[in-house]
Amino acid sequence: MPCFLCENKDTSESENFMSGSHQYNCPNCGKYEISDSLVEDINDGPYITKIEDKGEKRVRSSEVRFKAACIAAERKLKGQDNYFLHQAERQFDKENGIHIIDFIMDFPENPLEQFNRALLNLGRLTENNPFQAIQIDENKSNILFLREKTQLSTMILFFEDNQYIKIQTDLSDVSECCYIIAVTPYGWERISELQKYYKENSNKAFLAMWFDKTTDNYRKAVKKGAELAGYQLLIVDEAHHNDFIMNKVLNMIDEAKFVISDFTCVPEEDHNPKENVKVWGGTRGGVYFEAGYAKGQGKEVIMTCNDSLPSGKRRHFDVDQINTIFWKEESGKVITSQGKVPLAEYIKERIIHSVGKGAFS
Ligand SMILES: [Zn+2]
Fold it and tell me: Of 64, 86, 104, which one is at a domain's C-terminal end?
């Protein structure tokens, strides 16, 4: 089966009966899972809707599919694939679940943003090998956010007019555009400026934490708090940590405006090594590493910790002196220890006061 979003035929696909969804692995879009009911809604049209407190967001199904294919292609280049697309109104069980309307809200808002992000994507294609010439053909139209494949040559020529790229060979024929291009030193300079701009104006936040069923409600509360403050919260499930995922984590922190680090831990004796639970040391080395990495970039790090003996006591001396939000759970509600305010509300206020309101909604 071709990719549902971009129709690339070199795609592998499998059905997940448990969650009523299909998983795709596409050369353009990367890995993603999509619920069968969303596929039906997109195919049947005419609109996909999302009900929100402020009202209803409604987008044409054809538009949803086009924009989703572009965002998926960009996320693949950023190492941010592996998510579950759905249109369910309720809070979704799957941690990597994204409502399709939220997903496509990331689409460039105007032509200039489109042009800038397309250039960033061209840079990402060759960032490990900057002077490598790359082939740009109609398969790449999604990373350039182009509605019509025929717009490809216009955009490539604009990039060349601005001296951001050099067309080395034009292999286009009557029916298809195809260029071999390389990013120029001037193009890399522009890419570096844009990266800085997008980091400073990011609507994204990163959550560094220990993933466990005991921190599930905490995670939901923080996600809600970040969203109320206008930020999209990026989370990587630590269960799949390896070197590749670590790159992903660092990319996400690079892209985030600020980081929330939770220093909750458990007593090591509770854990059985046979279950491969990597918490024998009790404290979460990864959380410290990620918080330090963010701090080193001058980003605000909001620190939280479960208000229990092992967690509070085991925090390292270095972070012990930093203002930390202690939280606890009381009858299923996550609240702050002092003042007993819902954690989501408290986090929202802390974000707005320390980093300002985000534009994500
Ligand atoms: Zn695809």
Answer: 104
